[in-house]
Amino acid sequence: MSTAPSQLRKAVVNVVAFAVLGALVLGATWLYASQRVPPQPLEFNHYVHVQQLGLSCLYCHSNAPRGQSAGLPQVNRCIACHNQLEPKSPATRALQKYAENGEAIPWVPVAIQPDFVYFSHAPHVQRGISCQTCHGEVGQSTVAQPIKNQNMGWCLSCHKNMSTPERFVQLSSCEACHK
Amino acid sequence: MSREGLTRRDVLKLAGVGGAVAAVLSGCGPMAKYVRRRPYVEQPEYALPGKSVYFATTCRECPAGCGLVVRTVEGRAIKVEGNPNHPLNRGSTCARAQAALQGLYNPDRARGPKVRGGKAITWEEGIDAVARALQDTPPEGIVFLLGLAPDHLAELVYEITQALGAPPPIRFGALAMVEARQTLAAAAEAVFGQKAVPTFDIAKADLVISFGANFLETWLSPVAYAKAYGAMRQGHPGRRGVFVQIEPRMSMTGANADLWLPAKPGTEGLVALALGRLMAEVAGVEAPEPFAQVDPAQVAQAAEVPLEKLEKVARYAVQDVERVVALPGGVVLGYENGVEVAQAILALNGLLERLGKPSLVYFTPPAGGREPLAPATYKELMDLVDRMNAGQVKALFIHGVNPVYEFPKVLGFEEALLKVPLVISFASFDDETVPYAHYHLPDHTFLESWGYQRVQVGADREVLSGFQPVVVPVFDTRATADVLLAAVQKVGGALAEQVPYKNEVEFIQKQVAEFQKRNDGIYQAAHPKVFWALFLQHGGWWTQEATATPAQAQVPTVQVGEAKFDRGELHLVVFPHPILADGASANNPWLQETPDPTTTVMWNTWVEVHPETAAQMGLENDDLVLIDSPYGAIFASVYVYPGIRPDTIAIPMGQGHTALGRWAKNRGANPIDLLGFGVNGAGDAAFGQVRVTVRKMGRRQVLARKENTVGVYGDGRYQPVDKRKEEEEKVTSTQE
Amino acid sequence: MHSETPLPAELHGQVEELRKEHLLIDVRPREEMNRMVLEAMEDTSREWKWAMAFLGLVTVVTLFGAWAYLMSTGMGLAGIRRPIFWGLFIVSFVFWIGISHAGTFVSAILRVFKAEFRRPFTRAAELMTTFALMGAGLYPLIHLGRTWRFYWMVPYPNQRWLWPNFRSPLVWDFFAINTYLIGSTLYLYLPLIPDLAMARDKSTGWRKKLYTILSLGWRGTEEEWRHLTKAIQIFAWAIIPVMFSVHTIVSWDFAVAMKLGWHSTIFGPYFITGAILSGIAAVGSVLYLVRTTMKNMTYFIRPEHFDTLGKLLLIISMGWTYFFFNEFILEWYGGEHTVKEIIRFYTQGDIAPVWWLMVICNIFIPWAVLWNRNWRRKPWVMFLMGLIVNVGMYAERYVIVTGALSRNRIPFDWGWYQPSLVEISIAFGTFTLFLFMYGMASRLIPLIPVWEVEEGHHAHSLRKVGKTVVPSVADLE
Amino acid sequence: MAGEEHTKWVMVIDLDRCTGCNACVTACAMENNVAFAGEEENAYGRGMHWIRLVRYWEGEYPEVQMRTMPMMCQQCSNAPCEPVCPVFATLHSEAEELNIQVYNRCIGTRYCANNCPYIARTFNWFDYEWPEPMNYYLNPDVTVRRRGIMEKCTFCIQRIRRAQEEARLEGRPVRDGEVQPACAQACPTDAIVFGNWQDPHSKVRQLAESQRGFKFLEELGTEPKVIYLSSQRHEF
Amino acid sequence: MYGGYQGRYEPKIYVALFDDPEPAARAVEVLREIGIEDRLIQIQSGVPWKPEVLGRPIKASAVPKYGMVGAGVGFLTSIALYFGTPALYPLRVGGFPLFTMPPAFVLIFELTMLGLIVASFLGVLFESLLPPVVGKRVYHPEVSDGAIAVFFQAPAILLDRVKEALQQVGASEIEPVEGSFV
Fold first, then answer.
1. Chain A residue with minimal CA distance to E182?
2. For a disulfide at D87, which of C152, C231, C320, E94, Cβ 3.0-4.6 Å?
3. Residues on chain A touching B40 (C-beta within 8 angstroms)
4. What is the average per-residue pLDDT within B290-306?
């Protein structure tokens, strides 16, 4: 007779099981879809350059305060130091090969904007936003890693937090980034 | 963007262009889908990723010489803009200049030097071939066939031919043929005493009477004229210029007229004289000699123009307004009596001057006092073909012109070309002439080139408009001037002494240096390098003040006579396509896709037929017809066009390529093939005397148009097709 | 149980008369009806298999194949062009939404009004609703330029800070169609449960397993019946306004637009009437197919049904004509230039054949034929009428969607529309999809609601309970 | 930025100056990466032009007269295209008072295009190609649209934003005439003028107050931001 | 629970089949007279006979309540969506105010109806405990052929008395069945 409570229990178990399964599937999809660390042509170590040697980000990514993209270092900027520093290491040899051939190093960009998003470094850097705000502590890691969840909501929440409501009207207007 | 700001700020950036462009191409942009991202090997100081760099240069899509500013980003040319300071176009551009980037980045461009048959060679071999040609050919057997731009190359070639003792280069182009520049110059000599193409200052005019001149489309300097047209209409507060156009087929220019008079072809000169006589009558003075000889009523009847309209125009010109100008152009110069017709029309200006009206005609002072090499006449071209056929031409260099396409078939240039033992083409594209060339040594397109153009018409001051490369060459092409100079070096000896330039830039710098001494330019500099940098930065050199003065017009004695016509049913008007012009850039897809202003047709050739004529012949829109002239025949689709005389059909130039690339090839028809031999007094082609027969082919070939095919006639009220036909039948039956 | 007792000879005429007025008076025992329905359902003959295989194949090719081609290549494969941005897809969408009104109308409205003759074919009509709606629901997806982004219309929390625009009629559409699809599917399913239980009890093998799952353990206890009948009542009342809202909102897709020829206040009722017209016509056609292709169906689906449907069809056709007249006469009378152009285009322009087809199929032929009782009672006539009216209604949607778009305020940009092969293929594919789904369903679920038919048998019998007399089954409260 | 909150971009088109030369059409296409569709597609009415010249013939030969009118998105204040979009792919920018189209948000219902009384919108029927190296000229400031989405004139929003950014970095308001859409920049007769309505000294403001000014289909209540100056004709 | 028999006999469920509602109703009456309460009787049938006809207690269904609750949830959801999302993320279209009432009614109506419909359906399932998640429940397959099955739970000691009484009112057979009522 008194089976109703056990039925309910079973129903609850069913629902919970379904929810967990769904969450697992969705989570796996999200993990799959999120960005992962790409292999680079040269093993550049950000930690050594930034933390140990104390180089500023702008030394290599010199275009950030002036242009749209921060820019990737030219070969001769690397060579300028590496002619003296560790000229024998395999990575430096590979670097020299690029320099001798006059080729650009085919760096694989880590922080990628989709085609339909227009982001310019200049206005952000000129307003004194540090590189770490968006790119995280790249200097702490050996290999540059993409920042998770750098999506539209992330941009908007930052725009909202860092501006006045009047200014946010402009900063949240679609055409600010989508042209 | 701030154009003023840029020119000031980018002085230094532009100064070092020569060496720096080499590294520019390996840039990157955010368009990941289309362009690979790569860092610079050596980043030019002026090129910041994502920042635009602007280069001032000159348009070479037609010989006018408008100033451009090209926006580049990371070594790629992104957008052509007008140079706001250039005295000719003042920041504006036409459609052709806008689409020039599609010529620059055209996938169908010639990608490197070749010999006949398509085998690739090195530039060394190519230069050797040129050197051998210059060395081994007897000088009188060397012929340079050049287009109307660029002037620096023509001048360099002129020096080379002088040094060799060869005949001077021949400059020609289909556009020049229908513009009949020599006719205009000849007529101007008779009226203004100066043998050059005059500029008509319509900006200041209260009344413009144009006889066939399509000055808003392709004529001489269209952007400058369009600029002036805008000023004429609404540039002066409280005073709106009025515009009368007299031509058999309503061109885009005519479509903008307040009054469009479709005079019978061949009567335009008489209409001008009648108009002059009427003006004199209104003014109450005795009509001068050429005007006195006509009877306006008779002329109006012969020209099928209402006399009352002519009277009103005459009265308006004399009584109501102050500044009046009359200009000839287009098809009215294309009769055997074209010079006389032009004189009659220009004489109106003389008459008006006698009636106390100010002159609105001036001659653009040639830059540096040096007239650019005048274009050749049709007659000279026929002579050239004769010489080729006679085997007198041993080496033919072709640059900037596509004779197999642009010259009427009836001239026999193709056959003559086969008799020339050495033909070298410098075309940037694999055009129709290239297969006949033994060597194809492709030049850059103008956005990769150095050079200058001496502005000849449209500017009120001396203008030397400069070109500079805005990007590094996309393909393995080389400047023709450099090739010639390298060959000259190779030949050495007296030739090298007389033509002592190391390269093209040195030659140009030498020419430009002449202007350093001038103190009336927009800039001065003591050091040649700084002057050169300023020259590049400004996109040329011109004087600060307008120096052109109004030309005093005479009233010459003119016997207009009668225009002669071939046999045939209908008059033929061959006009330069308002967008494609002569078709040299027909492979720029956006030029093909830009609708024709009057018909909105894109991508094809159409035949304009008057609705009545079409009804009589049973033709409807898109019907394929065969157009047959005594000299050739083409197929094209009918466009029933309300703005054309019933006894006339019109076909635009620009299409009908059999080569030139994927977007131009096998598209439409080339009406130049219909033209014949006739020349006028100045030696220009009498292209207006051709008459044709039209035959229905019983097939339809639908024209791509922007307009829809219903509802655009009349006030836009839709009529079902069969009903319209009924009405047309009614019209024809009442006529019978 | 009612056993079949031989009737006295003198009563035959009387019974015949009764049958005409109250359908299915010649009752058969429940076992026999069960057997007949199951026999029809389990009749997976070779012909049926071939037909299903063929229909399935054709659907895969013409609908899904063409859709995949369209999606991978671009909307340009369709015949639409500027300024006619909507074409056959939207036409088919509106058409199928219209068809989907039949089931609800026949089942819910007749249920609410306790029209007894509905009983044998409510399920056949409800199935139409569900499948037609599924077909219709495909079209908004097919016609999207970027189908793979359709989920942006769904309101769900996301990182973009963006929600659907609830002011857009397309979002209303989205909600209305989903509500209607869910509602009508549940409305189909609820009365189906007892019949599935019946099938469970009487079948073996995989069918038994299937029906065990589908019947949800239905036993027919008093509790279950109480809740089920209550729920069916609620559904019948609730689904009617939803049905009206759906087609009204579909009509608002057009009516709210700043588009002459669309911007009409009469579109809501006009579309609903048209939908019911096409729906009822389609019911006639489908019932004919069911009756002729399935076993034992002549007992359940009878000329009386066709007769009644015919009367309905005639009435609705008149209603439609009334709205049609309103729509055109008023716009024409108003005399706005562009509207006149649109009407001229309808009646004389390129689209005129379609417009006149609509008038002939929706007015002239039904009016001429359906007055006649003898014609109405002939199933094949009603089958043809169903087809003709549906052709007419397809034409109506074609005219409204593409015709009005062909004329606008800028004569320079007028145009006209020609459907492309891909569009026609997809439109055709939904017809075969519908037939395929219906054919499959006819062999998988009892197409006749046996319990409702039996309920109908008892419906008019009053039972004495103690001292009171009550109707015996719940429905006749 | 002072004054920036009150920008209202307005375009004035002087039909008396306009010759119908179509330079604006080409300029627009080159600036905004507008695809070329080819002959067949254009013959079928699928040109991608963001701006077109609407042309009419008036009168009968020989009194026939051609009228042209450049027609593009009128950037209506009450744009009929906006509310019908289910996903906010086209909406009103409060910052610029412009009607904007967000390509990556568009799902391609094409409702906006049906609802536009100016027929200003074009649809990407296919993925259009710029064969290498023609893709080099593509403007990096403008999204290259893929198949299945709507596009339309944006008043060259990328130029507006660029000028604003430059002005802000230099700490000054945007000057009159500093922003020019590609069509206005190219126009050989200066028929198209662009500027900020809120600036009482701007050229557009002065021109727009001309007696010749009118807005196309103004009676629909869309409040377009393109003001046409009617053309005139001297009758002989 | 079972009066004096409790603890001495385990009650079992039996079924009696009837063809018509009248005998079934009489059977129910007989059972009640014997002392078997209504809650120990369950009737299964192939058509929804009215409880009055079968002499069973009349109960109201809870399904409408589910429906109301569902409608309420739908209504609140629609309000939250329609007024909540633009308030959080204001986007302007077509010169419309941010909150336009006429479109709100559309959304409110649709979601309310959706809530009503779905909740009513779920109500049927919940109230009838469908689908079964417990063990075997009493059932007789002849129900689907139109028979009326009267299930009753009675201790064995009463069985003979019950059988006799039921056969008097016309039960075709009385047999024990496995399973529970719910």
1. A1
2. C152
3. 74, 104
4. 92
